[in-house]
Amino acid sequence: MIPNYRATFTNEPRNVALARNAIASFARLCGFDDEAIADIRLAAGEALSNASEYGRGRRNGGFSVACSFQDDEIRIEIQDSGDGFDAPPDAAEIGPDDRNRGFGIYIMRRLMDSVTFAKNGTRVKLVRFIRGELGGPDGPPSTPTHSHHQHR
Questions:
Q1: In order of start, what are the domains of the chain with their CATH numbers?
Q2: Which pTM does this prediction carry?
Q3: pLDDT, tens digit, for every residue of 111-122?
Q4: Are 137 and 106 in contact (CB under 8 A)?
């Protein structure tokens, strides 16, 4: 059986912290070390903050979290009911713009092995391997790999 965690949250500010802590606890149960858990917690926190911020104002506003662990990788999907946003640049090296927008996406891309955006940016999938640094079981790649369709 594949370990998994699923929950749906309302957009109350405290729920971002509750969801972030639940994801960190799931990562710990999957065997990630403290440093990796800190990275996962921070990256997920950025995605959760975006989901909470951009999902507000909708009649059924809120966000959902789904985590699974298989083949030495954790997959975290966070979805909101917002309107979405424009596609980001493709390079992980691109940082936040002059208004400090996009910094959370930059952080997610630096801390996770894969960051994918779908459904016009209302769904983000974060992936992190348990062994090695960024890059999976065999250790870090020469440059981190990131794929994405949309971002906040």
A1: 4-129 (3.30.565.10)
A2: 0.78
A3: 999 999 887 778
A4: no
